[in-house]
Amino acid sequence: MSNFIFALNATVPVFLTILLGFFLQKIGFLNDNFNKTADTFVFRCALPVSLFRSIAGMDFYGDFDLRFCLFCFLGTAVMFAGVWAASWLLLKNKGQVGAFAQASARSSASILGVALATNIYGNAGMVPMMIMSAVPFFNVYSVLILSFSPQVDEQGHLLPGSHGLRAVKNACANVAKNPLILGILAGLPFALLRLTVPTMIDGALKSIGNTATPIALLVVGTSLCGSGALKHWKTAAVSSLVKLFLLPAIFLPIAGAMGLRDSQMIAILIMAGSPTTVACYIMAKNMKADGILTANAVLLSTLLSAPSLTFWLYLMRLWGWI
User: For 308-315, which contacts have Cβ atoms below 8 Å and span 24 or more sequence positions?
Assistant: First the structure.
C-alpha cells in the first residue's frame, strides 16, 4: 500500500496540472495564442536550458558501473528502434508513427526516477547513472524518430514531401539544429571537464529550466479541449500499455538475469516503465507530429502509472530483485 500511495503522490500532481490547463482553456482564461507561445518557449528555451543543467551537473567520473551503463545505453537504443519499427509495420495511419513511437518509448525518468529511488532506499542510488546513460539519448532518439517520420498538420493530415527520400536532407538539418540536441551538446564540456557554471548564472538557468514541466503540463491540458481531442484515444491507450507493461516485461527480466539488483532495478523500471514524459508533447507539436495523440498518451500513461508501477515493484520484491 505504501508503494501505491507513493506512486499516487508522484503522478496525481501531474494529472491535476493537466486538468487545470483543460479547465483554464474551457473558461477562456487561456487561449490559442498562449498555447502557441508557451509550447514554443518550452521547446526552444526552457527544455534546452533544463537539459544543459542536467548534463553539466553530471559526474562522469564518479560512481561508474560499466555493465549497468551499457545496459541503459543499449536498452534505450533497442527500445526506441524496436517501437519505431513496430509502429511502421503495424500502424495504418503513417502520420501517427513518430508520435506513437516517441510516446511509447520515452519515459519520465528525470522527474520520477530520483524521487522513487529516494522513497525506497533513502537515496537516489543508481538512478542518476541511468539518467546519465539513457536520458540524453531519449532526447536524441526522439529527435531522430520525429525528424525521419512522416509529418502532419494540426488536423493530423500528412504534409506533402514529409516522408520518403526527399525528407532525409531536411530531417538531418532538423537534427543538427534541434534546440534539445544543442542543449545537450552545450552541457557536455562542463561534465567532461568538471567545469562549474557561475552561481549567479546557474541560478537564472535553474529558474528558467524549472518552468518547463508546469508550463508544458498546462499546454497538454489545453490541447485536450479541441473537438478532436479524444479521436486517437484507442491508439494512445495502446501506446500507454506498451510504455507501462510491455517494455518493463521485456527489460526487467533481462536485467534481473544479468544480476542487476536493488537501486539498479529501480532505475531500469523507471527507464522502461514510467509514464510518457510531457516533453514528448512539446516536441511532437513543434516537430509536426501528432500532438493530440501524444497529449492523450501523456494523460493516459500518467493515470495508469500508479497501479502499474506498484504492480512492478511488488513483482520485483517477490522475485528478490529489490
Answer: 308/244, 308/245, 308/273, 309/3, 309/7, 309/116, 309/244, 309/269, 309/273, 309/274, 310/3, 310/4, 310/7, 312/248, 312/252, 312/269, 312/273, 313/3, 313/120, 313/269, 314/3
How far apart, in whole angstroms, are the C-alpha atoms of residue 226 and residue 290?
Answer: 14
Q: For cell 507530429, what's the residue? A: 289
| DSSP string for residues in 61-119 | TSS--HHHHHHHHHHHHHHHHHHHHHHHHH-S-GGGHHHHHHHHH-B-HHHHHHHHHHH
Q: How far apart are the first and last CA of the chain?
A: 16
Q: What is the distance between the alpha carbons of residues 30 and 195, in angstroms, rounded to a whole number?
A: 41
Q: List pLDDT tens digits, range 100-145.
A: 999 999 988 765 665 566 566 655 556 667 777 787 888 889 888 9
Q: Which three cell numbers stand for residue 192?
A: 567532461
Q: State the amino acid at position 32 in one-letter form.
A: D
Question: Is the CB of residue 134 less than 8 Å from the CB of residue 271?
Answer: yes
Q: How far apart are CA 121 and CA 125, in angstroms?
A: 7
Cell of 246: 510491455
Stated pTM of the model: 0.79
Structural domains present in the chain: 2-318 (1.20.1530.20)
